[in-house]
Each structure stands twice: as C-alpha cells, then as structure tokens.
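Continuing the series of single-chain predictions for the mutant panel. This is the parent chain; the variants come on the following pages.
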Amino acid sequence: MIMKRFLFSTFAFLIFVLTYAQSGNVKDVRQTYLWDVTLSMQGKAPGAPNIWEQVKEAIITDISQINDDRTEIVVIPFQHKVLGEWKEYATVAGKAKLVAKIKEYKIPLHNFNGHMTTMTCLYEPLQYVVDNVLSANKVDILKLMTDGIPDEHEKEYEQLLARWCQIAKEKDAYGFYIMLTDQAKEGQTVLQRIAPCHFEAIDVASLGGTDVSILMLTPQQNIAFNVREDYGKEITIKYAHNGGGTLQAGYKVHVYSYDNSYIQVDEVVPLNSDYTVTVKAQYMMSQTEMMSSISIEENEKLFLYSEPAEGMDQLPYAMTRILDAPTSVEMINKPEKTVKFHVL
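Parent structure:
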C-alpha cells in the first residue's frame, strides 16, 4: 500500500470567508437622470445656448457606457413637475429602449397665464425622486441636470437640500447637481451655502461641454488582515467602478485612517489601471505587542477612508468621484490553519 500525503493550506479560503461572509450582500447600483426639458435647453430664453441635442447625446453616451446589467437606469424628464419616468436595467435591450425614448422626446408646452411655455422647478422633481425612486436596498446615484435656476418653490427646494444628509444616509444616495450652462451656477452657490453631504455640484459647462459621464468608484467594503501573517505589509484596496466615464491616467486617491492603536495611514497614491491602490501603513505596535493586544476569539476593526486627492476636481480628472464609504480592516489574530489529507 502506497500512501500519498497532501498538505493543503486553507488560509486563503478562510480569508475569503471572513471577507465576504461578514460583509453581507453588496448592493446593486441605480442611476437616475433628472433631466431638465424646458425651452431654455433649446436656447429659447435670453442668453441661453441651444444645448438640447448635445445633452441628449451626453445622456445617451453615459447610459451606453454602463457595463453592469444589474444597474437600474431611471430617466425622469421634468419642467415645473415630473413629466414621465422610464425605468430599465442596463441590458442591451434595456439601454436601447431608453436611448430610443430620449432621441424621440419632444419638449411639451404648458399654459402659464395664457402663454404656452415652460417653467423650471427643482423642488417638486427632486422630492418625487426621494419619494418614488430612492431606496435603502440600492446605492442610488442621482444626476440632476439643469441649465438654469428654479422659477418657483425655491424655499422648499432649499429646505429639501437641508434635509438631504439624513435622506442620503437612510437611502444610501449620492446626488450631483450638474450645471449645463453658466446660468445654472447660482444653484452651486445654494449648495455651497447649505452644504448638504453627498450632494456635489459639477460645472460641466466650465469643464468644456455637456458631458454627464461620472465614473463612480466604490471602495472595497472589507479587508481581512491577519496580524500573524500580514504584519509589516502594505495594504491594497480595490475599487468597484460603475457608470460612464474613463479612468484618467494619473488619478490619485487620498487614503487615511482615524486614530487607532494599531495602524495609521495617511497617503496620496495613484489609482492603478486595475482600480486598486496600495498604501504603506505605519504600525503603532510591534507584532508581538499587537498579537498580545488583539483577542484570538474576537477580531478588532479599524477603518480606512478614501477621497479624491487635491487637484482631482480639475480636468481631466473632475468627472471621477469616490463614494463616501469606508473600508473596514478586520484585524485577525489566529494562526494559519492547515488540513491534512491522507490518500490511500
């Protein structure tokens, strides 16, 4: 009888289980285009450029670049109120349906004080999205695209923005106020004054066009770190990417940690083409001290935070955004486990 003995390390498998079993389900993404379809978009207002076809093409391009067919796409044309809601998933067929609707869309006119025209209201359409689109079971990316300031309900709009932080927290939402023309810049001033979290202004007009393609980066949710095996090593974070837009070479990420007893990180590093960054950690204890401090039975956690580095709000990097989601580092103090198989 000849016995063959195999020794298999299960360490990698354990790390896989720890990383994914504890993290829970990763949420799918929903992208909502809140699209201003007033007459000024066709240049039919004093000082307003005709950007109607440009914006249509920009939305179509952005939708076409979404490569995850689990992403839900919502297009909502609006004036003084919501005029429709089109929902599809980012399959080939779903995207084709939305593109066809956008291409054929015509601006409807309404009777305001005896005049057939259009008016802009940001409050009612935004409130509609909050009530009918956003939900806690998905990561919601909202693109509010307009070429001007509201004609009515400005106070209500500002009050809604003042509540946005709580809304964004409850519904995992990220809003972008996309200024399609210089006339829309007053809206940026409103955002700066109210300063709602998870709602940014993007001045695409000053960036040289009507591009609405935002590359969204979501930091890795969990990293397993075994103090017996990984002590002294650099730490790599992977970013999931969604939406249109292209990663520009040279894009940099600021990765940092808050005070903790184990590891400190504060570094600006380039984002690699595989959507990873690697940072050097400052170890606050020796390996022996760390092993003595962390329980074998109960893991410790620390958090790493990612944000665009200084200067990344300028071209050609301005259309890349990092979602405000920390990376949990699970500090594990367990020896590597092995399993022996005896094969007869």
